Amino acid sequence: MANTKHEGAMVVFSGGQDSTTCLFWAMERFQPVTAITFNYNQRHKAEIECAQEICRDLGVEQTILDMALLNQLTANALTRSEIEVKAGAGGTLPSTFVDGRNLLFLSFAAIAAKQKGLRHIITGVCETDFSGYPDCRDMFVKSLNVTLNLAMDYQFVLHTPLMWINKAQTWAMADQLGRLEYVRKNTLTCYNGIMGDGCGECPACQLRNKGLVQYLEQKGK
């Protein structure tokens, strides 16, 4: 990998397991590292407070953008409390899929990054444990990378450190970075807004906790 330590980066940051692992990954490779968090009146608003606390704790500059328009445009389990959180079945997307979310988040992150003279943008999307979300696919990210560069005549690089690994491997990455316990205790992935290991029942918690158990079992062998 080319030496990018002297180059700055922006992390799309929700305060969850994936984005926090990506934040630590970025801090190993770039300087300075900033974070951008999006408030779209999401169901689990506690994640914004969690993201703020992590950034304060790590001394990372954070921007919080008001994206309420996204909530107005699309109805799903993350933007409407009356819609039940359900996994996808029979080729249907989960009720938690938010149309256009990563398209908008990465586009706005790129605009903000350019103003700060940053070329590297890191996001925790993943095609291995991605619940079928189309905007988590590698093809989408690569396509958007080209589009953003053309749209702003600026050479961005979109990094996806988790793209080809599963949750157990994501926990392994956090451990390799010396941050497994930090990520486990201080992040919020739960759709019901419970810190750490979460409620244990929602799809996000089940995926996260299954990965942790798998990793700890592998580590113990």
Question: Summarize this, please?
Answer:
The protein is of the alpha/beta class. It has helices spanning 17-27, 46-58, 68-73, 101-115, 138-152, 167-176, 180-186, 203-220; strands spanning 9-12, 33-39, 61-66, 120-122, 157-159.
Number of strands: 5
Proportion of residues in helical segments:
40-55%
Largest β-sheet summary: 5 strands, parallel
Strand arrangement across the biggest beta sheet: 3-2-1-4-5
- The gross shape turns out to be globular
Strand content: 5-15%
Mean pLDDT: 87
CATH C-level name: Alpha Beta
CATH architecture: 3-Layer(aba) Sandwich
Roughly how many Å apart are the termini? 31 Å
- The helix/strand class is alpha/beta
Number of domains: 1
Give the SSE string: EHEHEHHEHEHHH
Radius of gyration: 17 Å
Question: Spans with pLDDT under 50 lasting ≥5 residues?
Answer: none
Write the CATH homologous superfamily. Answer: HUPs
Pathway: Purine metabolism; 7-cyano-7-deazaguanine biosynthesis
Organism: Acetonema longum DSM 6540
Binding site for ATP: 13-23
Function: Catalyzes the ATP-dependent conversion of 7-carboxy-7-deazaguanine (CDG) to 7-cyano-7-deazaguanine (preQ(0)).
